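Hey,
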Amino acid sequence: MTSQKLFSDALQLLEAGSIHHGEDKLRSALSVAEREGNRLVVGGALYCLGELLVDQQRTQEAVPLLEQLAAMEHENALTLEVDRAQELLVNVSA
């Protein structure tokens, strides 16, 4: 399965309230996207997973993911995710 399909499935699961399964799919999407070299899915998955973990007060798990995204050299398509990751990092550090 492609990283894009896994990412799409993860978002659907999260929207349906299946948090645990959605998190697992996000982690799978991230892993596959890294292997595929799909930077857009890597960025989206890092942000979504980081935000999910912050929402669950799992900040120690979220910070490395958000830092990885914030440090990515990005094309315009990732600007929003990078900006949001930086905002989340500021909020969890406060």
